[in-house]
Predict the structure.
Amino acid sequence: MLVLVVDSSTPAVTAALVEITTDGVAPRAQRQTVDARAHGELLAPQVDAVLAEAGARPTDLTAIVAGLGPGPFTGLRVGLVTAATMGQVLGIPTYGVCSLDAFGRATAGAGRVLAASDARRREIYWAVYDTSGERLAGPNVDTPAAAAEQAAELSVDVAVGEGAQRYVAQLDLPLLAEPGYPPAYALAELAAERVLAGAPGERLTPLYLRRPDAVAASTRKPVLP
């Protein structure tokens, strides 16, 4: 089953094609560009590029897997709208995965792991995973210091992700160099059971965790001076 994976929950804009079978997930093609200000400009061309590299067409896709975040409002919305629109047009199911869960999956066996991405405003999105990759806490948005306190209570061993790299001193944990961003293959693995079972498609509900910076005006502005 040929599956498209997209994630725009972090500064990394990711599009990948994977083959999902009963034997596991096999990568076919991937594009990832780190640019926090260009999610809208980058994702669609990257989807086209991975399809071209694999010699596939959109109609060859069986399903679409999308990272649900948490992530900043504008960037995260790009990936989810792209996935939902393609799923609707192609008539194929879409499946959502918490983007931080991909870190837990990718670092299974490394002990208790705090996965973190940059939430801006000097905060991080974070979650904690056990040695099997199962989530123990989160996802939450906090200052690095607050996350560090909770990580200590949960006896976390290491930290991973670009948020952890940015605030390594405040988290005061050993740092895994990789992965810096949610791995596409791990997102696919987390959705593989649903894909193989032909489960009904899901509404892709974003994990914003906080309100966007832009809000509607509370009062009307006068037209005349």
